[in-house]
Amino acid sequence: MNDRVVIITGGSRGIGRATALGCAKRGFKVVVGYASNAAAADEVVAEIAASNGKAIAVKCDVGSEADILALFAAADAFGPLGALVNNAGIVGPTARVDEMSAERIQRMMAVNVTGSILCAREAVKRMSTRHGGKGGVIVNLSSVAAKLGSPNTYVDYAASKGAVDSFTVGLGHEVAGEGIRVAAIRPGLIDTEIHASGGDPERAHRLSVNVPMKRVGRAEEIANAVVWLLSDEASYVTSAIIDVSGGR
Ligand code: NAP
Fold first, then answer.
1. Structure pTM?
2. Does residue 157 have an active-site annotation?
3. Tens digits of per-residue pLDDT, 37-74?
4. Alpha-carbon Rg of the chain, whole angstroms?
5. Which residue's C-alpha comes closest to atom 17 of ligand 1?
6. Quick one: which of 77, 99, 103 has its CA closest to 90?
7. Which 8-state DSSP code applies to residue 129?
8. Topology of the domain covering 5-244
9. Which residues contact 73 (CB under 8 A, 6 or more apart)?
């Protein structure tokens, strides 16, 4: 039984939800972060409790440093931190760069990039042997958009995920001697509500004809890779970026 805590930002839906359930099965005590949908986060906590797991839901907009500090304080009260999954992420409505407002781009970077780095900062302070911690793992959710650039869709989102990739490599090297592994997953087209939140609910299914495997992915297929990275089975994996994309 693993008694260590994992924080999953955006754990109430989609990939984060599947990861929360997968981590609970592996014995982690799960902190389910959510931005606004408390009912969905509570449902994940209840599902984990029904299988004799332990979980709490904590409201945290990762675009807010104060919310992030409160999230980590709640996790501290729950148990020793062993892992962070920087999963929370947003897209924007389909647009060209010459149509984007500064506010949109700033919010995208605040949530997808600054939020991930600030959460990692708090995790390193707790898990690094340099700070008296026992080590741990940080997994960042990137996207194949980082490679494809998402032209005519959301170049700002793609750029934010490119930043996540660079951050993953650099932080991994920075803390490799301190008991912390850092890795990223680049999902392809996954069947979640993120596409609807960008105003294009059919996006994943429409584009799936271009995927070498000719289908969208399931949230569980991403969660499986995250859970593996969090496990000792991935003990020699750090600063790595892994595509889970059906070949896309
Ligand atoms: P999703 O279905 O839209 O779920 C997003 C989750 O993040 C929800 O739990 C949501 O909470 C939370 N969230 C949204 N804004 C937040 C904020 N500002 N602060 C904290 N939490 C926030 O997304 P998903 O498809 O599972 O995506 C998860 C990650 O995978 C993202 O980083 C995304 O970029 C990446 N990804 C997804 C795909 C894909 O095709 N689905 C592909 C590549 C990469 P509420 O429920 O409270 O709103």
1. 0.98
2. yes
3. 999 999 999 999 999 999 999 999 999 999 999 999 99
4. 17
5. 61
6. 103
7. G
8. Rossmann fold (3.40.50)
9. none
